[in-house]
Write a structure and sequence with these properties.
Elements: E1 2-9, E2 16-29, E3 32-34, E4 37-49, E5 52-64, E6 79-92, E7 97-108, E8 130-140
Antiparallel strand pairs: 1-2, 2-3, 2-4, 4-5, 5-6, 6-7, 7-8
Amino acid sequence: MNGWDASIAFPAWRSLRFKIETYGYLGSNLNAPQHPYFMMAGGQYGRRFGRESAFVEALVGEGGINANWGANATPGETASFATLLGGGFDTPLTRRLAFRIDGGYQWSHYYLAPPTLPNIPYRIPGLPNNFARLSTGCVWHF
């Protein structure tokens, strides 16, 4: 799925910094639109190696998705707890601008609504909870 990503990280203290991130995806699966988005916060630990820098991060937060994301537009839950463990690599382009490759393992858990009453969410076998995430882009350093 294609998506977008925006984050801000506060100044580092002993190579550790607080990070806030939001990202989302646009796509469709099994004849249904899926537009999940996530708002997360956590820690990022980075080290410089010459001009380049590498980092690892752990983020937790909340994910949301459109109401009709299930197969053939079946309704489902629209909120989930989410975690992200990952890391990345920055290489400088100019004094303040760098190119970033960022990736990680993401866990989130959504339920589909059952077609009959009572409306208690249920789980479909094979519906994934574990995702890989990869993003690239430019980073502005203040």
